[in-house]
UniProtKB/TrEMBL annotation:
This is Multicopper oxidase domain-containing protein. Coiled coil: none annotated. One of its GO terms (molecular function) is copper ion binding. Pfam families: Cu-oxidase_2, Cu-oxidase_3. Residues 39-141, 184-281 form the Plastocyanin-like domain.
Length: 297
């Protein structure tokens, strides 16, 4: 079972064999740190949106309800879908969802198991940087050999109203047209507010990483080596897999890594760009940082 810490899985109902999901695009206030909120756009009350999990061969209907004060759409990043369902209304014959309306995206999952994303594809320069995106994972119920399966969306935000080097409780607007990023998140939270990963010694752990932002993130795990097993939802053949302690996730990419949790301890897992390990450039550590806690069996 896939887990996306601090972000729930999106439930579905089954109608005549079709898995039916609902995403609600709406203004969202997301708690980055205790008492510190950013005001942006999200799905179902959160940034990033809830994680969608399906399987190969599923027929899906995803109803997207637009409660934003502007038009929007949804693109299924990395999925092979019909042209009319791809979600780029400026170019394709695909829905442009008016405020107060909804659109149904219907398609069959033809991709193999893998890690993907969904995000707005209308005025992305603003809407995507306001937070409109989420994880889309194609699972495999028959897979063996993975004990724990975690997924993270990596994002960065320019949160206005806080003087550089200071923090304070309150709600602050996102400036989507600024590249002065001061908060770097894993599943919409910053360290130390990001939930740690709890695993047992001897478990095989997979971490799925997706980058929806504008900057690359070299993600570094302490204590063990990671094996890179997939890129953009596509398996890497075993003879091409590399063992590494740092995995670079470029904008628009997803990467899967796995490791054997043989080494007990509380191990940092973080972006290795120093400024991305800060909350509005304050001390101590923050930002795109969490821990993997390996408990002795």
């Amino acid at each position: 079972m896939v887990e996306s810490p601090d972000v729930p899985l999106l439930p579905y109902t089954l109608h005549h064999g079709v898995k039916c999901f609902e995403l609600v695009a709406q203004p969202v206030s997301r708690e980055l740190l205790p008492g510190l909120f950013m005001q942006g756009y999200g799905y179902n009350g959160m940034i990033p949106g809830p994680t969608i999990v399906v399987e190969p061969g599923d027929e899906v209907r995803i109803r997207v309800v637009n409660l934003l004060p502007e038009k929007t759409s949804v693109h299924w990043h990395g999925l092979d879908v019909p042209n009319a369902m791809d979600g780029v209304p400026d170019i394709e014959p695909t829905p442009l969802i008016q405020p107060g309306r909804y659109a149904d995206y219907r398609f069959r999952i033809v991709n193999p198991p893998g890690t993907h994303m969904y995000h707005t594809h209308y005025e992305t320069i603003r809407q995507e940087m306001m937070g409109l995106g989420g994880l889309f994972i194609i699972g495999d119920r028959h897979e063996r050999g993975i004990d724990r399966d975690f997924a993270y969306m990596l994002q960065e935000f320019a949160v206005a109203g806080l003087p550089k080097g200071q923090l304070g409780p309150g709600a602050y607007a996102i400036d989507p047209l600024s590249d002065g990023f001061n908060f770097f998140t894993m599943n919409g939270r910053c360290f130390p507010h990001a939930s740690p990963l709890h695993v047992r010694q001897g478990e095989t752990v997979r971490i799925r990483l997706a980058n929806l932002g504008m900057q690359g993130h070299p993600m570094h795990l302490h204590g063990v080596q990671m094996l890179e097993t997939a890129c953009d939802g596509n398996d890497i053949p075993p003879w091409n897999r590399q063992r590494r302690s740092t995995i670079f996730v470029a904008p628009g990419e997803t990467r899967d890594v796995r490791f054997l949790a043989w080494n007990p301890g509380n191990w940092p897992f973080h972006c290795h760009i120093p400024h991305h390990n800060a909350n509005n450039f304050t001390l101590p550590a923050g930002g795109m940082f969490t821990t993997v806690r390996v408990r002795r069996t």
